[in-house]
Automatic annotation (TrEMBL):
Pfam families: ApbA (PF02558), ApbA_C (PF08546). Its EC number is 1.1.1.169. Residues 192-314 form the Ketopantoate reductase C-terminal domain. It catalyses: (R)-pantoate + NADP(+) = 2-dehydropantoate + NADPH + H(+). It comes from Shewanella youngdeokensis. Residues 15-167 form the Ketopantoate reductase N-terminal domain. Pathway: Cofactor biosynthesis; (R)-pantothenate biosynthesis; (R)-pantoate from 3-methyl-2-oxobutanoate: step 2/2. GO terms for molecular function: 2-dehydropantoate 2-reductase activity. Catalyzes the NADPH-dependent reduction of ketopantoate into pantoic acid. This is 2-dehydropantoate 2-reductase.
């Protein structure tokens, strides 16, 4: 059932969100509050066979509850709905990006703009090789959201969101860029998004595996006993970034890691939670990506490699299924 019928579909700007996890739903709430319903159509692409409408609830940081109706597009309507999509925002986990896009790309118009928003790095390399004319932007968000139930999320943090073009020059129409920055609080457009993603990768490469291995909150990593591990893992990452022509300053990156440790002291990192709930972790897109890139440049990254092995060992103990 289309949400709007007042304008012909071809004159509307269509925005589709892929992934109905906590971040996908949060972005849906934020966009649906900001868009002009006479000009935009917003929906969520699902892997279900049939399309349906669904009530989505958000409890925000002020404990206010709002409910929105969402059109969930199932596989039966991909061929009809996806060719109209102007902006596809992909909010699935890094390891789900390739599969998700493989089934969607054949239906997308070459004019569609794709935005990848996930933890870690790597999928942009395979996705950019799969594209048939579509242009690509990348992003990272430190917003926090937790699922209370399938369609009710609670916002837990208002961290920074950084978005920027991977395809050069960017073909994301200015009104869509403005709409994204208006809708998502504390967000910015970064012309040098790869540098921002490497900086965020350093934060995740230091905090996520260590908190999962030590089974602790982020704040515990301020303890002196973790200092050598954190410095080594970040120093390895900085040298790999440099080989990729991304200039990071080791001390500045370490300062940022310790700032995040302090600001999120009470949090359990996403990798800690994945291990705790026996889910597949994002290790391949975090420390695994550093190791992978290092191999291309013949750089040794033993600490990142060790973290990958330790997390994979934990995963083997519960054999997670790829969803
Ligand atoms: O992004 C995070 C994560 O848990 O994945 C940090 C910044 C480490 C906050 O927990």
């Amino acid at each position: 059932m289309p949400l709007l019928t007042s304008r012909p579909s071809s004159t509307l700007t269509h925005i589709s969100i892929v992934g109905a996890g906590a971040i996908g739903q949060l972005i849906f709430h934020q966009l649906s509050t900001a868009i002009n319903p006479l000009q935009h159509r917003l929906n969520i692409i699902t892997r279900a066979s049939q399309s349906c409408t669904q009530q989505l609830t958000l409890t925000d940081l002020n404990h206010r509850q709002t409910t929105k109706m969402a059109m969930l597009v199932g596989k039966d309507e991909y061929a009809q709905q996806l060719p109209n999509t102007d902006l596809l925002i992909v909010c699935v986990k890094a390891y789900q990006v390739n599969n998700a896009l493989q089934s969607l790309l054949p239906h997308l118009s070459p004019n569609c703009h794709i935005l990848l928003l996930h933890n870690g790095m790597g999928p942009h390399l395979t996705v950019s090789a799969m594209l048939a004319g579509q242009s690509l932007s990348l992003g990272t968000t430190s917003q926090g959201a937790l699922k209370q139930s399938a369609w009710h999320i609670t916002q837990t943090g208002n961290g920074l969101t950084q978005l920027g073009p991977y395809s050069q020059p960017s073909t994301l129409p200015q009104p869509l860029q403005t709409m994204l920055l208006t809708a998502i609080p504390n967000s910015q457009w970064c012309s040098d998004i790869l540098t921002m993603l490497w900086q965020k990768l350093a934060v995740n490469a230091a905090i996520n595996p260590l908190t999962a291995i030590e089974q602790c909150q982020n704040g515990q990593l301020a303890d002196k006993q973790y200092q050598a591990d954190i410095t080594t893992v970040v120093a390895e990452l900085v040298s790999v970034a440099k080989a990729q022509h991304i200039e990071l300053e080791l001390n500045a990156v370490l300062d940022r890691v310790y700032q995040v440790i302090a600001l999120t002291a009470q949090n359990y990192s996403s990798m800690h939670q994945d291990v705790h709930h026996q889910r597949l972790t994002e290790i391949d897109a975090i420390n695994g990506f550093v190791v992978q890139m290092a191999k291309n440049h013949h750089i040794a990254t033993p600490k990142n490699q060790l973290f990958v092995e330790q997390i994979k060992l934990l995963e083997q103990q519960y054999s997670p299924l790829i969803s």
